[in-house]
Amino acid sequence: MIKKGITRQIVLHYFFVVFLALLLVEFVFMLAVQRYYYESIYNTISTHISNSKDFFEPISRANNAEDGNNLSRLLENLKLSNTELQILDLNGRVLASSTAFESDRAVLQTSDISQALNGAMGRWVGREPSTGEQIMAVSHKFDLGGDHTYVIRYMTALTMVNSKLLVMGLLASAVGVAVLAIVLIISIGMANSIVRPINNITAVSAQMARGRLDVRVKGNYKHELGELASTLNFMAHEIVRSNQIKDDFISSISHELRTPLTSIKGWSETLDSGGYDPEETRIGMSIISKETERLIGLVEEMLDFSKLQQNQMKLVKGTVSIREIVQETMLNVWAKAEQKQIHLKLDADETYPYNVFGDGNRLKQVFLNIVDNAIKFSHENSWIYLSVKEENGQIIAAIQDTGIGISEEHLIKVRDRFFQVNHQNGGTGLGLAITQELVELHEGTITMQSELGSGTTVTITVPALMEDTNDNGAETQSSDGSIPN
């Protein structure tokens, strides 16, 4: 007995479909064979009747014999082997029979007789009342001239034919049972070939669920099972990678939190001990303030990411000028850029508003993060180019640096949460992940192009606020020249 499960379902489905198909085929086959045999018998008798009629009727009309001579001569000349010949009057009464039955038997009223009286070749299949045997009767009307018109009726037993049909039916049933047995064996094999990989995948997934993320689905499976195995393996790989990124994040954030806390604790203890001049006190308080701001920035970054992940980030939207936001961003990072002697250059039409419908503070956060990264990874005495333009109902802002760039391997992962190309640079690895989420909340897109050693270009595209655009057609031109290609 096959245990419950997919194997049993597949086997039963195959078996049921084949069983119905065989049942239908055998029914049609037996019906066709029976029809063939019955038609053969009918055609033999009807051909004999037609030939006899064409030959005997003209002779009988010429001789114009007496009724008794006609009957005996009909019986003699029209007899057919393995059949009983009856001669009936037009009322259906038997006048003579090749088996010498009495002529005063009851009137016959079978359908073949009524068809014969109408001039057709009548046929009837049924049971003989006296014997209960199944027979076929074929009747036709003979006109011998004058008042000598009779119905010639042949009857033949179908017992032998039905016996052959029964044997053929039993043989066909045996073949059907054999076919079903073969189908059962094949369907079990096919079901196992499908279920075995599923069981293997299930076992591996159960191990993964228990924390064994090093296991993989092995085997070259095809079609949907192959896709399922590949997806499961990819999922395990991504979970391992995500866990590794989380571990790296915890290590990095622990370091990031410990460093400012150590500075704050050290200077606070130093200042608490007293005995320092005002300048040293000012320096200490400045360091405590900066490190506190740094801690606040780290915490706010993690809180922002948590809100985004839980869809709790609320945007206060209104009409915002992207050009003004970019200009404010440049002012905010100007001091940091000056420390590395990095030059910032904006390319935007001063008369064009570049308005969008969005949250100004969050959009500024987006540009601050990208420009800050550009400064962090740029060489000293280099340039960072910023441009804003409107194209096909979209505001397109680009930030291009000539810094260290990002390798192709890291470029596809750089926007993943917690991912950091270089952990020694500090940070949480959430900046670009948050930036992408904020841009998407504004129904925009962010793309990155980079080449290791040549720099990076980040492009932000958001829908323009069409009601506030003008049609002056002014071309984008910066005060100190255009961005070189």
UniProtKB/TrEMBL annotation:
One of its GO terms (molecular function) is kinase activity. It holds the Pfam family HATPase_c. It is found in: Cell membrane. It catalyses: ATP + protein L-histidine = ADP + protein N-phospho-L-histidine. SMART domains: HAMP, HATPase_c, HisKA. Gene3D superfamilies: 1.10.287.130, 6.10.340.10, Histidine kinase-like ATPase, C-terminal domain. CDD domains: HAMP, HisKA. InterPro entries: HAMP_dom, HATPase_C_sf, HATPase_dom, His_kinase_dom, HisK_dim/P_dom, HisK_dim/P_sf, Sig_transdc_His_kin-like_C. Residues 192-244 form the HAMP domain. It is a multi-pass membrane protein. PANTHER family: OSMOSENSING HISTIDINE PROTEIN KINASE SLN1, TWO-COMPONENT HISTIDINE PROTEIN KINASE. This is histidine kinase. It comes from Paenibacillus tundrae.
